[in-house]
């Protein structure tokens, strides 16, 4: 009787796991320690076909290959998760007959009551074309905030319709506009960036003709700060989006322009409409494809690589590195001016740095000159231990050893490890 009860209980648990997996909208696999598939949820079957996946190796199911990913020289998040006993993820580029395939894998261990992993749940996301998106445009996407945006960008790239990029000043809206342009059919043509505040019919016509040529298939027009457009120019651009023509001085029919238009704004255009400052019809047209560009505060994982990228091209032309302590200072800021503010700080530091490595004093000096407003939301490095989220961000962005981190925080290594354990137990 006891054995029968135990067997029934085990079956109920298995059925419960399957029910949970089937309720999830993304393709998921339940994988055993020997890499065999224990279960494929409904979303996986709908996405990749209704087959009997049970018992087959996960690398055969996902990539149609005969050996483990690590044996092919690729990162295997499943093997990593077996060692770390925590969530692991990886990106994989696979060449197929129909072209490159980009797959995002996320593996989470599912533990028994004794804490040991019974299964591993793998989420499989086919992000077709996303790898090329990153290669064309120089977009850094280590952060979840940016990665979440990439599938939407990939969907908009081939549609050749206007896009609205909404984000704070300095958040890098132009970079995202260039990613859309450089991955589209218009990539071979020009990319024209115009400020809306001083834009007139004459200037728009002159710049379009100069950059793209009259009547020719053109590239992409990026208009930043669209909320600053005059009422007349709002009407002109609405006409352009509807008809593919724009007005010139004294011309009632308009000139033909085969171009894609991308708009940028830091404002809520709905508020502008309510205040009578923005064309309501134009607002509705742009709201269809609005993308929210994350601030630098929302993408702390990207900060180290952003710093490396900025330091590759500095006004001084010097090849400089950034000390771990200096990086920690930068990571502790909230960056109201976002990437533009970070760039200004690093450019100044690179000019006045006396050595080949930018130090804490170099960064602090640059911050005092560039960041004229006091950042009241900034958390000093010495106080980051008191804030769980800030401490997590610091641990994820720190490139040096634990000993170096403890020194930068002004605490002992033993105290640092105690704080990390305390954080893990919360």
Walkthrough of the structure:
The chain has 426 residues and is of the alpha/beta class. Strands 2-1-5-4-3 form a five-stranded antiparallel beta sheet. The chain has a five-stranded parallel beta sheet with strand order 7-8-11-6-12, with helices on both faces. The longest helix has 22 residues.
The biggest beta sheet reads:
5 strands, antiparallel
Strand order of the largest sheet: 2-1-5-4-3
The outline comes out as: globular
First CA to last CA: what distance?
41 Å
Mean pLDDT: 82
Gyration radius (Cα, Å) is: 26 Å
Q: What percent of residues are in strands?
A: 15-25%
Please estimate the helix content: 40-55%
Task: Give the structural class.
Answer: alpha/beta
Which stretches are low in confidence, meaning pLDDT under 50 for 5 or more residues running?
1-13, 373-379
Number of helices: 18
Number of strands: 14
């Amino acid at each position: 009787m006891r054995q029968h009860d135990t067997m029934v209980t085990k079956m109920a648990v298995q059925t419960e796991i399957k029910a949970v997996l089937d309720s999830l909208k993304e393709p998921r696999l339940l994988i055993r320690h020997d890499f065999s598939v224990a279960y494929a949820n409904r979303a996986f079957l709908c996405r990749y076909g209704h087959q009997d996946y049970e018992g087959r190796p996960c690398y055969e199911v996902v990539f149609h290959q005969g050996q483990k990913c690590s044996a092919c020289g690729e990162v295997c998040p499943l093997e990593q998760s077996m060692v770390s006993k925590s969530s692991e993820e990886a990106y994989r580029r696979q060449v197929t007959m129909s072209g490159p395939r980009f797959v995002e894998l996320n593996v989470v261990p599912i533990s028994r009551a004794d804490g040991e992993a019974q299964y591993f749940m793998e989420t499989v996301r086919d992000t077709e074309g996303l790898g090329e998106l990153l290669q064309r445009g120089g977009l850094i996407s280590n952060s979840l905030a940016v990665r979440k945006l990439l599938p939407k960008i990939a969907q908009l790239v081939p549609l050749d319709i206007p896009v609205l990029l909404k984000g704070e000043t300095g958040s890098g809206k132009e970079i995202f506009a260039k990613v859309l342009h450089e991955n589209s059919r218009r990539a071979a043509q020009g990319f024209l960036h115009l400020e809306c505040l001083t834009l007139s019919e004459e200037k728009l016509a002159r710049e379009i003709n100069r950059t793209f040529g009259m009547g020719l298939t053109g590239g992409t027009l990026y208009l930043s700060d669209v909320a600053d457009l005059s009422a007349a120019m709002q009407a002109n651009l609405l006409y352009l989006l509807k008809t593919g023509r724009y007005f010139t001085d004294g011309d009632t029919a308009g000139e033909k322009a085969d171009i894609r238009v991308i708009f940028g704004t830091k404002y809520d255009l709905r508020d502008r409409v309510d205040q009578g400052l923005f064309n309501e019809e134009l607002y509705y047209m742009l709201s269809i494809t609005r993308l929210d560009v994350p601030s630098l505060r929302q993408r702390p994982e990207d900060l180290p690589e952003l710093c490396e990228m900025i330091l590759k091209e500095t006004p001084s032309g010097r090849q400089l590195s950034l000390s771990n302590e200096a990086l920690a200072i930068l990571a502790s800021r909230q960056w109201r001016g976002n990437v533009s503010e970070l760039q200004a700080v690093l450019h100044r530091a690179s000019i006045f740095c006396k050595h080949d490595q930018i130090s804490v004093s170099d960064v602090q000096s640059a911050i005092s000159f560039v960041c004229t407003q006091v950042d009241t939301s900034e958390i000093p490095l010495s106080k980051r231990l008191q804030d769980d989220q800030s401490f997590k961000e610091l641990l994820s962005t720190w490139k040096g050893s634990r000993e170096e981190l403890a020194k930068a925080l002004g605490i002992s290594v033993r105290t640092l490890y105690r704080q990390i354990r305390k954080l893990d137990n919360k």
